[in-house]
Please model this.
Amino acid sequence: MAQIAAVAVDILAGEVDRTFDYRIPAEMQVFCGQAVRVPFGPGRKDGIVIRVKDHAEVEEDRLKDILSAGKSVLSDEQIDLALDMREKYHATLAACLRLMVPPQVRAGQQLRGVKMVELTGQPVTLRRGALAMQGVLDALAAGPMALTELTRQVSGGAAGAVRALAQKGAVRVWEEGIDHTPYKQLENQGGQVRHTVQQQRAIEAIERAQAGGGGAFLLRGATGSGKTEVYLTAMERALARGKGGIILVPEIALTPQMVSRFRARFGDALAVLHSRLSQAERLQQWQRIKSRQARVVIGARSAIFAPVDDIGLIVVDEEHEHSYVSERTPCYDAVEIALWRARRAGAAAVLGSATPSLERYARAIRGELTLLSMPERIGTGGMPQVSIVDLRQELAQGNRSIFSRELIGRMQRCLERGEQMMLFVNRRGHSTFVSCRACGQAIECPNCDVAETYHLGEQKLKCHYCGHIADLPQVCPACGSRSIRHFGAGTERVEQEVAKLFPGTGVLRMDRDTTVGRDAYLDILERFRRREAQVLIGTQMIAKGLDFPMVTLVGVVAADVTLHLPDFRAQEKTFQLIMQVAGRAGRAERPGHVIVQTYSPEEPAIVCAAAHDYLGFFEGEIKRRADSQYPPFGRYVRIVFSGEDEAKVRQAAGQAYEAWRQTSAGQQQWQQALLFDGCMEAPIRRLKQKFRYQVLARMVECPAADQMEGELYRLALACKIRGVLANLEVNPQNMM
Ligand code: ADP
Ligand code: ZN
Ligand code: ZN
Model:
């Protein structure tokens, strides 16, 4: 009897979430995880074999044969992971598999060498109608590209067009070798050090877990306490046992120092994965890992799917960062995937942070993760001193500048001593919150415990949780002052102020506008390291793991911006941000000082961050979450409908909500657990030319919540209006 292969066909349409059975021709060897080409409908498709079995789901005579079989592209572990993710994140199997296999590999291409194409710069005249050639030239204007990628982007015979253009001398084609390693330009840093007692304890605990069947750790270590050193040593030990490993960082471009420290230890055994790799570079890295040339992988979110086999250790640095959660379907959380893979491999997982996410710290307290703690900074400097400056008093005393007098004084002294400073500004979002400059009160929603948001378009205040709408008040509801204003000073404004106050001072600015080019981050950081400038101004980009010994002053220009975001995590995010930013000061012998400017100096997030008091913050915040039934005690489920035709989007959301009301009304347990449900415009109503509406449900965390989530997902899938996309999110990191 013929063998049957269950094949996941590479199509993304939501409704076709199933595998298809094919007969394995007698002369063909086919196994799980292998890339295959199969007949599908009128054409052919790529697919991956998920299972090999004796019996087909359909009658034998309707079965078609597999056309050809390629390399093995997935391990059994990865297949299981994809199957689990399908359940947990309500995604199709094909969408999950796509995360694990680069497109060129799915297409069953040869694994070695990648044909690259680039413009030579030699001018060429094309005859009219040479569309493919014109398409190739246009596509290459942005830079070199793999031929496979060109074929995808340019219709009508890109390969032929490239050959013709090469003959005319307009393009150059070459084969890229396999060992191209991004970030080579970084010099290697660091050597072996003598571990402190707290480092030793952490390393030993991790090593015991590696040797003894696995374990999951939450490593809470102050900024500069030597966490990276722990990761490095634990990884070395894993390698010494013949194991491989993965290190996740929030965004690789922002953590060049981390990469170079790993490069220094692991050399060619290290593969680097990041979002700015070209398709060809990504493929090469994938091949190096798959062939075990590289055993240690460092990368951002999607690197968690790297095909490392025989894993001994997975590290997630800055585990609280929300960039680990994907906002595109499947909306997976890379930290959870890390825990899954480590558990499956009997490996150690280490989640490190100075400010662990509240939800995960709560799990550690429950005993699901083992807590490791490294409270002390390396060296003699200790934690920097943090002062809170009350901007209301500055205003009362006539200072209308964005800098307080204390900050200006400290800046002056820092510059005079020839030291460096970082000024942190966080301006984000299309809309900003509104607060009173006299009393610090932010205008809050009467139904919810969050600040309302000012929408410029309609000039209204809106609550992003329940849809409450209000006019902008003329006077502050709390104190009656007329000094009500929208909040937010951007990075450019801060740059201007510095130039005005301290003319001639070297200033670098790092935000989305100044970091467009591929290596722009690195350039700016390198220039700051070389002390070309004394002042670095930036958004949260500068908050992460940077280590500049000459930085002795950090100024948080406006701590309130994140504090009043319409988000149940606003307090937590503010606390984390201030702790992180403060961690940049005084990392060497010279003592550091941090100034936090705020209109809300009594907010626990700010008070606790200034005192470096994680546990104090945790205790207050977890209580507030419990009282308001926010996660981890409650759950938000939302379906965002989006599309270009507003009426259709509204109609889709309305239909789903109506169906939801009908189903849920009869379910008594659901009604008991349900805190709120509604259908409304999304907080950002139009994004990238698409209108957005949402069905939102808030519920108490309980078994009924799983059922309700499943029902909402079913409704999202049932949305069949053309041109409308429905996306389900659970406890979204971004409520906009
Ligand atoms: P974290 O990752 O917790 O911020 P790092 O590992 O970057 O901390 O350590 C902070 C600084 O201390 C780095 O410059 C690092 O090289 C140095 N360092 C780490 N461990 C030791 C040690 N045991 N002895 C001396 N210096 C150390
Ligand atoms: Zn007021
Ligand atoms: Zn509300």
